[in-house]
Amino acid sequence: MRFSLLLLAAVCLAPAMQNPSSAELCGRCHRAIHEAWRESSHSKAMESRLFQDSLQMAEKDFGADTRKICLSCHAPLALESGDLQLVRKASWEGVSCDYCHSVRDVSLEGRNPRASLAIGSNKTGPLKDVTSAAHTSSYSAVHTSSLVCAPCHEYRNALGFPVLTTYSEWSQSSFGKNDTTCQTCHMAEVKGDVVDPHIQRAKTATINLHNMPGSNSLQQLSGAIRAQLTTSRREDTLLVHITVSNESAGHHLPTGSPMRRIELELRADSYKGHRFQAQKVYQRRVADQAGRPLVREHFAFMKGASVISDTRLAPGEQRQETFSFDIPPGVPTKVEATFRYYYSPMARSETQRRVTFLSLSRLVR
Predict the structure, then answer these.
(1) What are the extents of the domains in the chain?
(2) What's the CATH class of domain 218-364?
(3) DSSP letters spanning 233-288
(4) Rounded CA separation 240/321 (Å)
(5) Mean pLDDT, the chain cut into blocks of 10 residues (365 residues total)
(6) Among residues 255, 261, 225, which one has the least CA distance to residue 243?
(7) d(CA 345, CA 335)
(8) Rounded to an integer, what distance in angstroms lies between the CA atom of residue 282 and that of residue 342?
(9) What is the C-alpha radius of gyration for the chain, rounded to an integer number of angstroms?
(10) With contact defined as beta carbons under 8 Å apart, do 305 and 280 qualify?
């Protein structure tokens, strides 16, 4: 038994604790957690082709120093270890185990939130009284709060313009005031194995799911947005009313990059050949210092200086959109409302660019 534990330590222990460890190493023991994390956007934050294209353009347009800005969230271990050329495997693994579980504290002082890291043999997390043959573990209160998410989900650029405002949106909402954390929605608690049972026998614990759905997740979008379609008449005009609400997100919808938006597309097709189409867009549009609208993501991050308009849905907000069409009464008409989440102007395929998450329809006369 003693030999088995020593072997376990040799397998799971990072060979050089002063440098970040690959998530693959962590996955040898924390198999279920690692497999869930691999499906998350965090694991793909660095290798994403969309990010790679944006990074290349940012460096071309604004110089090599922008690399540090981009990598600070998409490859934080690369920045922490000085591996800006991404030589180590851990640098390519996005927001990985050794970043999150090396966080000791997060400060909101200064222009942007900043995490204090201590990469080494002691791993921090939200669980108490846990032991490991491979490393020491410490309970961390910051891991139970939304504060741990702030360094990458709140960002002011050099001009002082708030490009990313997800954390502050949350903190000002009823969710933040009631301390309903980011983890509540994006890292739900389940019963599971912290360590693979084949490696170490341990009681089943309550752990956070590490697939962290968000952004373009159908599950999250469908659960957050609620909508209802009704119609009415005003003489020869068909009125279509869409009641839409941000029912369960603790931040604005959409949040994050100003390039993201939710599109409501409405169609009215009558049996007599009438064809009508209308659209409503929910988005925060930003401009540079000269007031010019910014339509490229890296431009918004580097040159954003003011908000042109903000039509996003605030937490708990309900809004009614009304559309009118010249369709007389008595004409059978199919009315269809479709909600799409548009998340990347850089995408080269339609499936990467937007996702349809809600459709409503009804036949009216």
Answers:
(1) 2-208, 218-364
(2) mainly beta
(3) EETTEEEEEEEEEE-S-SS-BS-SSTT-EEEEEEEEEETTS-EEEEEEEE-EEEE-
(4) 8
(5) 39 54 92 93 93 94 95 96 93 96 97 96 90 88 97 98 98 95 94 76 77 88 95 94 97 95 96 92 98 95 98 98 94 96 75 86 93
(6) 225
(7) 28
(8) 10
(9) 24
(10) no
